[in-house]
Structure formats: structure tokens, C-alpha cells
Write a structure and sequence with these properties.
The complex is a heterodimer of chains A (813) and B (230). With 813 residues, chain A is an alpha+beta fold. In chain A, strands 1, 2, 3, 4, 5, 6, 7, 8, 9, 10, 11 and 13 form a twelve-stranded mixed beta sheet that branches. Chain A has a six-stranded mixed barrel with strand order 14-15-20-17-19-18. In chain B, the strands form two sheets. Chain B has a six-stranded mixed beta sheet, sandwiched between helices. Chain B has a four-stranded antiparallel beta sheet with strand order 2-1-4-5, covered by helices on one side. In chain B, strand 7, helix 6 and strand 8 form a beta-alpha-beta unit. Classes of the chains: A alpha+beta (813), B alpha/beta (230).
């Protein structure tokens, strides 16, 4: 408890200056919340995989064993091998196959592993449930979110048909999707109860067994290889069918995360600077506005130390309350954002680190303390008379020239008086200008960045250019296919003989030509090739006919104009060291092919190791004798629609005509990464605008307190309430206009810096069109942002000023 | 003479249950009259003036000026009323320090929407009449008390009001200057302007008013004509 007189002074200050107290509390609330959110994202974006891996006991190694070569007891014994620190399993598993497409009908999904696990937890690979519940009975399925994020939305309760393949119907099961979950090491594409695996396997479809291990040494590829050898030596030959280490999962997530960092830094830096400015302005302004009261307190015997304590306490009380509320608000805002980030990062779950919840409010309170102590110390050193005199009005002479200048303008008198007012308090005006400027800059930046990111999504997913795709079946006996029927109706079984590729192509072409709404289509064959010097294969899409309309955004060069030419993604150029115009040798089907690179496209497929070319470039390698590949025709058709045609209706109709051997995908995919970024942009922008608006509100409140007597004079000589509001709003409108003028080019420059930085972080080039996103009309509106922030922040205190009693104001000192 | 100001049973309490600042005051002031309201500190003089000017609202009773009920007006209405019908002069002048003398005087005219040329001409006329033209571009802080009060009078007259309310107009001035201001008010009243003057100075009241209203504890203690004005 504070000493009596100081405590009473604090209590009196808090209750008498309620608006100021509330303003301090609100500013701290919003600033703290914004700082918690931004810092949590920055921290969680720093090696989230490593943190999640530790928290969820990720598996260093996921090993699939051949059940016919190793017994259960032999597998169980591997848990006690030297170097094994923990193990889970054995879990029976089966591999399913299919292809990805989307429509409101069947939705096939790509090859995945289904594992039979009774529970998501365990000593290794704690699977984190994201929705619904774990499979706890027959006929239930849980899918991994890394799989579902790349498919159209599949609601819980959807019936899923798993076809056992093998040409018969004995291994067909209809399961219900009961939940989604995330495994940090991607141990499985989905989970069922252990008994369900037995139904899906048999003589033609043997089951495998999965075990998950953590080792004392597994930090790099060579250590992992040694661990695999240890396991192999302890088991009969051929027992290990395959393995996957944590290294491949880590690599897949790093790219997504890197793209976030530049934009988070930009927002975080602006947010922190704004918070510091506004808090400083609000708190120090509150103390300076109380100089007269400080003089009175000194005149009745308060010592300088008591003055400092009183005014620091007066700022600290609302600040602490605001900080605590800000931490709660920041955590609430962060929860959905971090949940989505966890999905994007593939790490199961992310939380606000505890130390962020402690450090941010402590730092804010320290800032408040400094902002309050410095002017309070100054006031404490003044004599009582000086403090009273200092607190009465701004220094004589300030702003007089501005009043003369603005008074000459042919504008209503309340406007000109208001526009001249900021010049009486230049330091406070500069702080307010900076806060509005930063808020308006963020808006310009956010608008441009959102527009650019939508172009990124359009270019990556190509959903506008190619709203429908038709996937051809792989043909032949194989593993189970999966078809998903939303609405609970199981789809037809797809077992049985598949048509040959040539026949399939003819059937699809005939259907497309006959389908109303078809504008154009092209056939694409996807294959993997090798390039000398690259350890990873390069994905190639080979198109038949004109494919320049298929929505790939050109960064440089031009689309290929004939065979033996190709366009490539940016990362391909980086890793091969090639440039536009260079030739590169690709090996397809064992045959080398020389290709000239004529263009660079915006694409992230296969982490940017991606090439697009004419079918004739690779045709010789893909057919005929001597080829190790047997692809005779296209793997998919990209379809463009006439304007006004509904892709969903078109897709449903086409699927019905083609039947179950073909999969019609309605391409309405979005990007989770971009969706997350855009939602973050929106959240952070709104928070920062509120902080700027609160700064304006505080400025007006302080100004009103200082000029309350003048307000009384204005009203006494006939200023109406509307004229008073106009005058008060104009106190900051001019500042807002100046901020607007500067903010637009500043925001555009920030956009021009951050977006390329984001692209560079993931080794992506950018088409110029992704940067040239600001239109004249948009810029004109953005040019009003600063004024809008200023006016919005001023309206409420302006109405309070208009409502002040004239008599009371005249008698105020 | 017709009553310009009519006050009926006017009461004002500043807190719910305390002693009223004004307690059932009724009076009529004719057009062209010069009335001085006197009384000790806390008698309700300034409260009465504020209620006539519409700067405050009564707890009960009515105030009518030139046939318009002031206590029933909105805030916008009372602002326009003060701008167009009433000129106010205060003890401590209430000038705006960051406006020049001319801008201070211009202010009510500009708020009323008077044209720039007409307003400037009116200001020049008033400054000349009040013999302060030389201070047109000066700031109030540089003027003497008497000069500031002249500026305040000019501001009060710029919109040609029918009623001039003066709250202790000489209270912050020395004797000689106070007499100058008093004669000025007398001249204005002689030209037809109705004057209500609040003062605690009996000599001022006797010199410049023709009616003396004494307030005591919020009530009219006496209301008499001044026998002889100096």
C-alpha cells in the first residue's frame, strides 16, 4: 500500500481524469495484445518443427517391416537395441493408392499409408488431434491434416470407400471420417483401429508393420543410416521394407516458414515502434497535462519524490490493468492464428510461449514507467509556481503565425482555428503524426500485400485459368483406391479393368468436346526426370498443343514455342546455375534430352524443381522400345471454361458422363499459407489502426483539457456544438492529411521491399505484375487513410468537448 | 417600455439538496434599460447572468429574452442566441491569446457567417470607435487591462446585439481605467443598448445604471431605481 498522501493523490488523479485513465488502459491493452501476437508468431516461426518435434516426441525413424519376414517378438525386441531411446508399435499398416481430384461428387486422394493405432499417444510420435475424435470403433477413419489440407474440404462424417484392389471386392471397406490429426513426422496418412487393417489386407494385399523409433544419435543422414543398419542387423534379411526419417519432414516445412519471416518482421517492427510512440505520448502527455496539479501538490507540501511516486502510480494503475488485459486478448487472438500456423507448418500445435506472456507486459510497464518518471522528475524539480504556470497553457508565441496564416484561408473559421492548433504543441503533434503515419503506412502496405498474395495463389493454383481438371486412372491391379463421397453416400467401387491410356484419352476428349461450357482444353503428362548434378528428381509437365493459357505466371523470358524448349521454375535456375537461353540435359526414361530454357515461371511444385515443355520434347523418351517408362498418353486434362459457366456444375456433369474410371477435379484450391498470411495481415492491421486511433484520441483529450477555458470562450461568443466538433476534429485532420500524403508512397515502398524479400527467402522469382498491384482509384482511397484514422480517433473526444458546459469551461483554469 | 428580459420564478441548484444559488427570482428588464445586479459573494449574481445568457440551465423557472425562451433552447440554439442577440463582457476579458485583436473581435461575426468584407469593415469601425485601432494586429498579452476590456467590448458588439451582459467588467481594472470602461458602457446604453451589469461596486452601479437590483442568498432583496446617475 502506498503512503497515505501519495495514495490519495493517485486515487484522486485516477478518478478525476477518468478519460485519461481509460485512454492509458486502452492503449496498453491494444499495444500489448498486438505485441504478444506478433512476438508469438515470430518466436513460433523460429524452428517450429524442432520445438514441435521435441514436444510431440517425434519419431527419428519410421520403419515399415515385411510381416512375412519378421515376427512380432523380433520386432518388439528392437525396442531394446543399443541406441534406441524410445519406440512405439508395432502398428499394422497398409498402403492405399489413388489420384487427387475434387468435385462435389467423388474426391480421390493420393497414395497414403493407413496405420492401425488404438490411441494417438505413445512414447514416440504423439499425434495431435485437430478435429473430431480418434478412431475408437470399427468403420472409423482419422486422416492426417497434411493430407486433408491439400484436398477440397471433407467434412467429418463423410463416408469413405477403400477399395482393396486386387480385382475383387473382398477388401473393400466403407469407413466414416471421424477426425483429423497431425503427426509431426508424418508417420501415416491416416489411422484406423488395429482390427480395420485386417479387413483391408489379405493374400493379394499383404499388410506391413510400422514401428516408430527415437535414437540417441539421429542428427543427420549418416547417423540415421547407421541406425537403420543397427535395426537391419537385428532382424532377418529383407525384414525392413522401407523407412522415412525426420529429415524429410523438416525439409518440407522449412520453405513455408521462411516466407513468413520478412512480413512478420515488417509488421512486428511497425507494431512495436507504434506501441512505444503511443504509450510514450499518452503517458508523458498525461503527466505534462497535470503540471498545474503538481504545482498545487507541491505548494501544499509534496516532496519531489512523492510527486514522482504519485504520477508514476497514476500511470501505472491503468497500465498494469491494460497490460494484463492485453496479454489475455493477445492470447485469444493468437489462438486461431497459431492453430492455422501449426497446420501450415505441419507441427500439430503451437501456443504462445509463456515467456512472451511475461516479457511483453513487463516491457510495456517499464516503458510506461520511464514515460511517466521523466516528466514527473522534471515537474518535481520545478518550483510550485513554475509548475502551475507551465501547466496552464502552451508557451506564448507557439502557433501564432499558423493562426494568422490559416485565418486568411477562405474556409469556415472553426476549420482554420482547428488546423492551426497543432502548431502550438510541435512535439506532441510530431508524435501524433508519426503514429498516424505508421498506421496509414501499414494500411497501404497491407492492401498491396494482400492483393499480391491473392495473385500468388491464383498463379500457384491456377484455378481461374484451369477451373476443371480431369485425371486419368493408373490402370491395372494395385492397392486400394479411395473415393470420398460427401453426404454420406458411398461411391461406386472402382475395382475391375481400367481402360488403356489411349482409349481413356479418346473418351475424355469426346466428353469434353460434347460438354457445353468447354472453352479449350489441353492434355498434360507428368513425369519425373533427372538432371546432372541434382540429387532430387525434377518434375516435368509435358503439354500437347497450346498450353500458354493454363495460368502459369511468367517471370521472365517467354512461353515455349515448340519442342526442345522449356520454361522452368526459379529454384531450378538457382540450383542448376542456368539462365534464360541456356541449354540443359534432362534424362527421361533413361534417354538424355537437350532442352533450351526460354522462360522462368512462378511455380513452387516439387520445391521449385519443375519444368514445363511440349509433349514432343519427351515423346521419344516415353514411348517405344528401350524406355523404362510405359506412359502412352496424358495423365490429366486441363480444361478452360467459357465465361459464366459454373465449374462445379460443369464438373458434376462431366463426372457423371465419364464414370468412375476418371476423376474430375474442380480446381477451387486455395493456399493455407497465403490464407494464413492474409488473415494475419488483416488482424495486425486492424490492431495497429486501433493503436493509432487511440493515440489520436489521447492527443485530443489532452488538447481539450489544456484548452478547456478557450472552449468556453468559443462557446460563449456563439460557437455551436457542431462548429465545436468541426474545430476539434480539425485539430488532427491536418496532421492526418500530411500523414496520408507520406504514408502512401511509404507503404508502396515497404510493399516493394517486403514482398520480394518473402519470395527470395523461398528462392522464388516474382512476376512484375505481382508488385504492380496498386490502382489509381485504390491509391486515391488510400490517400485518405491518415485522415480517416485522425477523424475516427477525434470524433468521440470532439463530442465530449462540444458537450462541456460553457459556464464550467469559462471558470476552468 | 416593453420588457426585453423576463425572468419568472427562476431557481438554480448546483447540487441536488444544497442551498439554491438562485431561489425563485422573478424580474423584468425593459429594452434600453441599464440594470445593475449587486450582492455579496455567493448571492447569485453571476449565476443570474449566466442563465440570462444561456450559458447554464435553470433548475426551474423560465428566462425569456426578446420573446424567446432561452431555457428551452438546445445548445445550438443558445449558441446562436448569444452570437446574434447578446454581447458578453467578463471580468478577466476572456480573450483568446493566440488570436490577434482583430481576429478576436472578428470571431463572433465569422461564426455567424458574416461575409469577410463586411466583418472586417465592422471590426475596423468598432476598433476606431473604441480607440484601439493601433492595436489591431497585436496580441492580447501585450495590451493593458483597459485595452483588453475594450477589445472584449468590441467583440461583444460586432454582431450588433440587443442586450449587453457585463460580469464585473471593471473588477480587474484600476479605478481610472474602470471609470473609462464605465463611461463607455454608459454611452452604449445611451445609444439604445440594454445593459445588465453585475458588480459588487456600489459606486459603479450608481454611476452607470438606472436600476439597482440587490441579491442576497439567491433572492431579490431590493429592486429600486437609481436616483441620480453621474
Amino acid at each position: 500500500m502506498m503512503p497515505g498522501p501519495v495514495g490519495r493523490a493517485v486515487r484522486g488523479g485516477l478518478t478525476r481524469k477518468r478519460v485519461q485513465t481509460i485512454a492509458i488502459g486502452l492503449v496498453l491493452l491494444v499495444s500489448t495484445a498486438a505485441s504478444v501476437l506478433a512476438l508469438a508468431l515470430l518466436v513460433d516461426s523460429n524452428a517450429p518443427f524442432n520445438k514441435a518435434f521435441t514436444a510431440q516426441h517425434g519419431a527419428d525413424l519410421v520403419v515399415t517391416f515385411d510381416r512375412s519376414k519378421a515376427t512380432s517378438s523380433q520386432l518388439a525386441a528392437t525396442k531394446r537395441l543399443p541406441g534406441v531411446t524410445a519406440a512405439s508399435g508395432p502398428f499394422d499398416e497398409v498402403t492405399a493408392s489413388g489420384t487427387t481430384s475434387a468435385s462435389s461428387g467423388s474426391i480421390p486422394i493420393p497414395t497414403l499409408t493407413l496405420a492401425g493405432r488404438a490411441s494417438p499417444g505413445g512414447p514416440v510420435d504423439d499425434v495431435v488431434l485437430q478435429s473430431g475424435h480418434w478412431a475408437d470403433g470399427p468403420g472409423q477413419l482419422v486422416l492426417d491434416t497434411q493430407l486433408t489440407n491439400n484436398l477440397p474440404p471433407i467434412p467429418l462424417g463423410t463416408k469413405i470407400t477403400i477399395d482393396g484392389g486386387g480385382g475383387d471386392s473382398k477388401h473393400v471397406a466403407e469407413l466414416t471420417l471421424v477426425g483429423t490429426a497431425a503427426s509431426v513426422t508424418g508417420s501415416s496418412g491416416g489411422w484406423v483401429t488395429p482390427g480395420e487393417i485386417a479387413k483391408l489386407t489379405g493374400a493379394h494385399v499383404p499388410a506391413g508393420t510400422q514401428m516408430l523409433y527415437r535414437f540417441s544419435h539421429a542428427s543427420d543422414a549418416s547417423a540415421i543410416a547407421a541406425d537403420v543398419r543397427t535395426l537391419a542387423a537385428a532382424l532377418p534379411a529383407g525384414a525392413i521394407a522401407g523407412s522415412q526419417s525426420w529429415l524429410s519432414a523438416d525439409l518440407a516445412e522449412t520453405g513455408n516458414i521462411k516466407a513468413f519471416v520478412p512480413f512478420l518482421i515488417a509488421f512486428g517492427a511497425i507494431g512495436l515502434v507504434m506501441s512505444v510512440l503511443i504509450v510514450t505520448n499518452v503517458v508523458s502527455g498525461a503527466v505534462v497535462a497535470g503540471y498545474r496539479r503538481i504545482g498545487v501538490l507541491k505548494s501544499i507540501g509534496f516532496a519531489p519524490s512523492q510527486i514522482v511516486s504519485a504520477y508514476t502510480g497514476q500511470a501505472a494503475v491503468p497500465a498494469v490493468i491494460g497490460c494484463i488485459g492485453g496479454v489475455v486478448l493477445g492470447d485469444v487472438l493468437a489462438r486461431p492464428v497459431l492453430s492455422k500456423a501449426a497446420t501450415v507448418y505441419g507441427v500439430g500445435s503451437l501456443q504462445v510461449p509463456t515467456w512472451v506472456d511475461v516479457v511483453v507486459p513487463v516491457a510495456m510497464c517499464l516503458l510506461v514507467g520511464i514515460a511517466a518518471v521523466l516528466p514527473a522528475l522534471r515537474a518535481g524539480r520545478l518550483s510550485a509556481v513554475q509548475a502551475i504556470a507551465t501547466g496552464r497553457a502552451p508557451a506564448t508565441g507557439r502557433g501564432y503565425a499558423a493562426h494568422r496564416l490559416f485565418g486568411r484561408l477562405a474556409l469556415p473559421r472553426p476549420v482554420t482555428i482547428g488546423l492551426a492548433a497543432p502548431f502550438a504543441r510541435p512535439a506532441r503533434t510530431a508524435l501524433t503524426l508519426t503514429a498516424i503515419l505508421l498506421g496509414a503506412t501499414v494500411v497501404t502496405f497491407a492492401v498491396g500485400l494482400s492483393s499480391s498474395l491473392r495473385l500468388v495463389v491464383d498463379a500457384l493454383e491456377r484455378s481461374k485459368a484451369v477451373p476443371v481438371q480431369v485425371m486419368l486412372g493408373q490402370g491395372g491391379p494395385g492397392g486400394p483406391h479411395i473415393k470420398i463421397k460427401p453426404g454420406g453416400v458411398a461411391g461406386p467401387r472402382s475395382g475391375g479393368r481400367q481402360p488403356s491410356n489411349a482409349a481413356a484419352k479418346r473418351a475424355v476428349e469426346a466428353a469434353l468436346r460434347a460438354q457445353p461450357g468447354t472453352l479449350h482444353y489441353t492434355e498434360a503428362t507428368d513425369l519425373a526426370v533427372t538432371v546432372a548434378g541434382l540429387s532430387q528428381e525434377v518434375d516435368v509437365s509435358a503439354f500437347r498443343g497450346n498450353a500458354s493459357w493454363t495460368g502459369y505466371a511468367m517471370i521472365s523470358g517467354h512461353w515455349y514455342t515448340g519442342p526442345d524448349q522449356a520454361v522452368v521454375a526459379s529454384h531450378f535456375l538457382t540450383v542448376t546455375g542456368k539462365s534464360i537461353g541456356d541449354e540443359v540435359t534432362i534424362v527421361a526414361g533413361g534417354k538424355p534430352i537437350r532442352v533450351r530454357i526460354v522462360g522462368e515461371v512462378f511455380a513452387t511444385r516439387n520445391t521449385g524443381l519443375f519444368m514445363i515443355t511440349d509433349w514432343k520434347t519427351v515423346a521419344g523418351a516415353l514411348s517405344g522400345t528401350g524406355s523404362r517408362l510405359a506412359i502412352e498418353g496424358p495423365t490429366q486434362f486441363d480444361v478452360g471454361l467459357k465465361p459464366g459457366v459454373s465449374a462445379t456444375s460443369y464438373g458434376n456433369s462431366l463426372q457423371a458422363k465419364l464414370g468412375g474410371n476418371y476423376f474430375v477435379l474442380v480446381n477451387n484450391r486455395s493456399s493455407d499459407v497465403v490464407d494464413l498470411m492474409i488473415s494475419l495481415i488483416g488482424t495486425l492491421t486492424v490492431l495497429l489502426i486501433i493503436v493509432a486511433g487511440l493515440g489520436v484520441l489521447n492527443t485530443i483529450v489532452l488538447h481539450t483539457r489544456e484548452r478547456v477555458h478557450d472552449l468556453g470562450v468559443f462557446k460563449a461568443v456563439g460557437m455551436t456544438p457542431r462548429q465545436t466538433v468541426t474545430m476539434v476534429v480539425c485539430w488532427v485532420a491536418g496532421t492526418g492529411l500530411v500523414a496520408s500524403v507520406i504514408a502512401v508512397p511509404l507503404g508502396i515502398a515497404l510493399h516493394g521491399y517486403v514482398l520480394p524479400a518473402m519470395a527470395r527467402s523461398v528462392d522464388l522469382g516474382l512476376p512484375a505484375s505481382f508488385l504492380n498491384v496498386y490502382h489509381a482509384g485504390e491509391l486515391a482511397l488510400l490517400g485518405l487513410t491518415g485522415i480517416a484514422i485522425a477523424v475516427a480517433g477525434a470524433l468521440l473526444p470532439a463530442s465530449w468537448a462540444a458537450a462541456i458546459g460553457t459556464g464550467a469551461a469559462l471558470h476552468a483554469e | 417600455m416593453d420588457a426585453l428580459v423576463e425572468i419568472e420564478n427562476l431557481t438554480k441548484r448546483y447540487n441536488g439538496s444544497g442551498h439554491p444559488a438562485l431561489d425563485g427570482v422573478s424580474l423584468r428588464i425593459a429594452a434600453g434599460e441599464a440594470a445593475a445586479i449587486m450582492g455579496p459573494s455567493g448571492s447569485g449574481k453571476s449565476t443570474l447572468l449566466n442563465l440570462i445568457a444561456g450559458l447554464d440551465r435553470p433548475t426551474s423557472g423560465t428566462v425569456t429574452v426578446a420573446g424567446r425562451q432561452v431555457d428551452a433552447m438546445s445548445e445550438t440554439g443558445t449558441a446562436r442566441f448569444r452570437r446574434d442577440q447578446v454581447g458578453m463582457i467578463f471580468q478577466f476579458f476572456n480573450l483568446l491569446d493566440d488570436l490577434t485583436v482583430a481576429d478576436n473581435v472578428l470571431l463572433p461575426a465569422q461564426l455567424a457567417g458574416m461575409s469577410r468584407s463586411a466583418a472586417r469593415a465592422r471590426v475596423d469601425e468598432l476598433l476606431a470607435t473604441l480607440r484601439i485601432s493601433q492595436h489591431k494586429n497585436a496580441y492580447p498579452a501585450r495590451l493593458s487591462g483597459g485595452e483588453r476590456q475594450r477589445v472584449a467590448i468590441a467583440r461583444a458588439l460586432v454582431n450588433r446585439p440587443m442586450l449587453l451582459l457585463a460580469d464585473e467588467p471593471t473588477g480587474a481594472l484600476d479605478t481610472a481605467t474602470g471609470e473609462e470602461i464605465g463611461r463607455l458602457l454608459l454611452d452604449l446604453n445611451a445609444s439604445g443598448l440594454t445593459l445588465i451589469l453585475v458588480t459588487h461596486n456600489p459606486e459603479l452601479a450608481a454611476s452607470y445604471a438606472d436600476r439597482l437590483i440587490q441579491l442576497s442568498d439567491g433572492r431579490i432583496a431590493s429592486d429600486s431605481a437609481v436616483q441620480v446617475r453621474r
